[in-house]
């Protein structure tokens, strides 16, 4: 039972990390686009 909980937690943590990473990429892309638009 303990192993199942650990696996579930690890999968959940990985999912959260992936979402955070995608959010960071999204913010970077948005900043880059704004920079291009402002200086284009």
UniProtKB/TrEMBL annotation:
Protein name from the UniProt record: Uncharacterized protein
UniProt organism field: marine sediment metagenome
């Amino acid at each position: 039972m303990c192993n199942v909980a650990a696996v579930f937690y690890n999968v959940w943590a990985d999912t959260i990390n992936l979402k955070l990473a995608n959010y960071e990429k999204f913010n970077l892309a948005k900043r880059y686009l704004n920079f291009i638009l402002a200086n284009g």
